[in-house]
Design brief:
single chain; alpha+beta; Jelly Rolls; 4 domains; five-stranded antiparallel sheet; four-stranded antiparallel sheet; 21 strands; binds heme C
Length: 592
């Protein structure tokens, strides 16, 4: 008791003493500016003026008092909460009060003896020289209009074998015009195909990369002004394979003058392959978004129950300009409720990835909920429609979104139970199908999950639902056809594969699968035609060569078969079918 009493007296004495002295820049304000403002308010950074010296601060004193009182600066959206975020940029109330008093008292400079050393910043690459620097091939010329622009730059990664990335530094170009940027990993080359010419990039605010294999997104790679590049913790790294593209999705705010933007990214490799495999869980409910004009509190929710124990590492909420109050919380199996994030005044322009200082353990059975409210009235200063208009879910900036990404690391990795990310992905896919039975992607993704787990019949059922929703979709028809062939129904599979090829005649996988389907029905002529077409699309595929050889051998066309087996072995000396069949040809059909 006595000690507490002393402490209280000590604090009040100190405050009283401070109160009696005038507040000065050198003693009281410079430490705040250096710590909380200078990272952006200095030459070369995003903010429109520097806050490094007394004369800088004095010129903007009134504004500084206003923006700190309203907490518009430093930009930090989440409310304080029990689960702490790393790199929190929130001023303490005492600091805000000091700034107000400083300005009221005439923004005095004070004694130069009191001025702390100015902050030191690393020039150039923040983490030192990267192992690999990639620069956008074609700079983007921003038109001299002040409209927000969303542009995607594609960076092919020139590596010849799998590498592990410990950190990525994004240098977006002139930081005054680049509001934020986001890296997506494209393992399928799908984005490249959207470029008018190689290296040109393409427009669009939100991009999706569809993947045909189980390879969930795992890292949140985000840049905004003031971002310090993030180095992955021990055991984690991002896998990059030969042929992977990195897509830099940027939000640009032109100045009204013509500007040129040419971003670079620096990659830092580690020789250690990842041993901990996090994954991104996405909660969303865009279908609920149909917001009448004038509505101030349009509520959208989603709720997902975790099928395994995870550690929550980071959280990234996302809505567009009508988003107002953004909340996510976790309800643990014992009933405890934890706020994961609460942003009472959402602002798309200051969106960010928030990383927890300590991973948050969420046991199996925890319900994760999102609760976003949207303001489509004319009182929302960011409302893109004046007067307000009906707004629905979608990818364009004038559409709305309701997304929440959680980066989680499954806790108990038990090889016997299989990859726990599969359980998460399957539960998510089921959740999406239940939430939205008319959603093509939900069924397609669930089917792919089931197929990856060898639940072939269940997968076929889901693919059928997907194909019913989009009867001409090439990927879904191909997947359904291939699953039917694998399940021993080549006759049924062939029809879907033909539909896939009608939609996309240059679809390598569909030709390959149809080749199998026809061979499975003893139509070797048809099969060899399909394998030949597949080879025209990918001439160096040893498996297709081997299968073509096999189809020809079945028809007794041995010399041709032999040359295809040999070609297969040239491409891949370990191609087992070619080896075996070539051997069989030699033994049984002696002249060859
Ligand atoms: C993360 C980067 C960042 C940090 C940190 C930051 N600012 Fe800013 N600030 C900006 C940017 C960018 C702008 C330009 C206006 C905008 O985009 O909102 C700005 C604008 C301002 C303005 C002008 C506002 C207006 O209405 O024109 C003031 C004043 C300001 N900042 C003060 C501060 C102070 C004081 C701090 C520290 C307590 C601070 N800022 C911290 C990035 C930052």
């Amino acid at each position: 008791m006595i000690r507490i009493h002393w402490l209280v007296i000590g604090v009040s004495v100190a405050l009283a003493a401070q109160d009696s002295k005038p507040v000065t820049f050198n003693r009281d304000i410079a430490p705040i500016m250096f710590r909380s403002c200078a990272m952006c308010h200095r030459p070369g950074e995003a903010a429109p003026f520097s806050l490094l010296t007394y004369s800088d601060a004095k010129k903007h004193a009134r504004q500084i008092a206003d923006v700190t009182r309203s907490r518009a600066m430093p930009p930090w959206l989440p409310e304080p909460q029990q689960l702490k975020f790393a790199d929190e940029m929130r001023l303490a109330q005492a600091g805000i009060d000091l700034i107000q008093r400083w300005v009221e008292q005439g923004a005095l400079e004070g004694d130069t003896k009191d001025l702390p050393a100015p902050p030191k910043f690393v020039e150039g690459w923040q983490l030192g020289k990267p192992d690999l620097v990639l620069t956008a091939k074609k700079p983007l010329e921003l038109s001299p209009q002040r409209t927000d622009t969303y542009w995607n730059f594609i960076f092919p990664v020139p590596i010849t074998e799998t590498r592990w990335v410990k950190a990525i530094e994004i240098r977006p170009g002139d930081k005054r015009y680049v509001h934020h940027a986001n890296i997506l990993v494209d393992r399928s080359s799908a984005s490249r195909k959207r470029e008018a010419e190689p290296g040109a990039g393409f427009g669009g605010m939100e991009i999706r990369i569809e993947s045909q294999v189980f390879d969930p997104d795992s890292h949140l790679l985000f840049w905004k002004p003031g971002t310090v590049p993030y180095v992955e913790p021990e055991g984690m790294a991002l896998r990059l394979d030969k042929g992977t593209d990195l897509i830099l999705n940027t939000h640009l705010q032109p100045s009204g003058k013509p500007e040129v933007i040419q971003p670079s990214i620096g990659l830092y490799f580690t020789p250690q392959a990842a041993t901990k495999l996090p994954m991104l869980l996405q909660l969303e409910n865009d279908v609920q978004l149909d917001i009448p004009p004038g509505r101030k509190d349009f509520l959208v929710t989603d709720e997902f129950t975790l099928p395994v124990d995870v550690d929550l590492m980071a959280i990234y909420p996302h809505a567009h300009y009508l988003g107002k109050d953004i909340q996510a919380f976790a309800t643990l199996p014992d009933g405890t409720k934890k706020t994961l994030i609460h942003i009472p005044h959402w602002n798309l322009n200051w969106q960010a990835v928030y990383r927890y200082t300590q991973p948050v353990r969420l046991p199996k059975g925890t319900k994760v909920s999102l609760r976003y409210t949207y303001d489509n009235s004319d009182e929302n200063p960011l409302n893109p429609n004046q007067p307000p208009a009906r707004v629905v879910g979608g990818n364009r900036s004038r559409d709305e979104m309701c997304h929440l990404w959680l980066q989680v690391l499954p806790v108990n990795f038990d090889a016997a139970l299989g990859d726990p990310r599969m359980a998460l992905q399957e539960a998510l896919a089921r959740h999406n199908v239940e939430k939205n039975p008319g959603d093509f992607e939900a069924h397609y993704n669930l089917a792919a999950m089931l197929q990856a787990k060898d639940k072939l019949d269940a997968a076929i059922g889901e693919y059928e639902l997907a194909v019913r929703l989009r009867p001409e979709d090439a990927a879904a028809n191909n997947a359904l056809g291939a699953a039917l062939v694998a399940a021993g129904h080549p006759d049924r599979g062939a029809g879907y594969l033909r539909t896939a090829l009608k939609a996309r005649p240059d679809y390598f996988d569909a030709h390959y699968n149809l080749g199998f389907a026809l061979a499975g029905q003893d139509d070797f002529e048809g099969a060899s035609q399909q394998f030949t077409l597949a080879l025209q699309l990918q001439p160096d595929d040893a498996n297709v060569e081997a299968n073509l050889g096999t189809a020809l051998a079945q028809m007794g066309r041995f010399p041709e078969a032999k040359s295809h087996f040999e070609r297969a072995l040239q491409i891949d000396p370990n191609q087992a079918i070619a080896k075996e069949n070539l051997e069989a040809l030699r033994k049984e059909v002696s002249p060859y």
